[in-house]
Every structure is written in C-alpha cells, then in structure tokens.
C-alpha cells in the first residue's frame, strides 16, 4: 500500500466519487437505524424522501466550504478512493468533523488516524478553537477513535444536521484545539 493521498474534494469535479461514498455511508447509517428497534426513528431517506433525493442537500451541506472555513477530502490509496472526511465551519469559534468514513476494505490500515490527524491540523490552521462531531449510538469503533483524539461527550450543538427527534439516541462530542504555528500551510496531498 502506498501512502494515502488527500484530495481536496470539489463538488463539480468529484461528484461521482462523492455521491458513491455518501450513498455507501448514508445507506449504511440508515440501514443500521432501522435495525435498532428501540430508536423508533425514521431516516430522512425513507419512502417520503429517497436517498438519491436527500444526497444533493447532504453533499452541499458537508462539501461546499473551502479553506479557511472548511475542507472536505477524498482519501485515495493506490489509485482507489478509500474513504472521505471533512471539516465544516459552524461559526468562527466552532468547526464540525463530518463524514469520517472508510470503505470496509481499507479499515485497520491506519487510514482513520491519518484522516483524523489531517483534519485536526487543518482545524488548527484555520484558527478554530473548538471542534465538534456527532455519531450514531451504534458507531462504537468511531467513538473510540474520537476519544483517542481527545473528544469528550457534550450536548447537541447549534448547527448539527441530526434531527431533534434523533438527538436523544445520538452521541455528540467536542474538544478544544491548541493553536498551530503560523508557518504551517495546507497541501493538496499530505
């Protein structure tokens, strides 16, 4: 395996790849929500709003900001898209990690750590003092990863895309950031 490449996603240029990854990710999330019987919630990608209709708004919400407000990456390994993840600004004081996702074949290779380290560095470079994120209750491996990087549980935050009726069954996390020296810069591939 060669070193991963972090491609800064562009909604126009990478539409096919972004759509495929979001379909995989959101399809998995919604299928898991249906399996968790005690949640008694329905997904926005239900019979009233199919996933293909929900995706354009979801993509725009998480992939449309550019530095220094936000950034979204496609993670490429050996010429193949292995995953994605991004950062979106919610205010001048708070950014949110979004769509940290690796395709199953690429898990356990240290790529989640590389993605987390890149996004944490970007958030510092952009000047955000705090980061937040959300994950469903069934995403235990992701929550362990986030805790390893200093995230702690918190209340739902302003700007979350998690519907209010789901929030009691969701995990919200945050952490503060230490400023980075002024001589750091972003690169297309890290």
Automatic annotation (TrEMBL):
<protein>
    <submittedName>
        <fullName>GNAT family N-acetyltransferase</fullName>
    </submittedName>
</protein>
<dbReference type="InterPro" id="IPR050832">
    <property type="entry name" value="Bact_Acetyltransf"/>
</dbReference>
<keyword id="KW-0808">Transferase</keyword>
<feature type="domain" description="N-acetyltransferase">
    <location>
        <begin position="23"/>
        <end position="178"/>
    </location>
</feature>
<dbReference type="InterPro" id="IPR016181">
    <property type="entry name" value="Acyl_CoA_acyltransferase"/>
</dbReference>
<dbReference type="Pfam" id="PF00583">
    <property type="entry name" value="Acetyltransf_1"/>
</dbReference>
<keyword id="KW-0012">Acyltransferase</keyword>
<dbReference type="InterPro" id="IPR000182">
    <property type="entry name" value="GNAT_dom"/>
</dbReference>
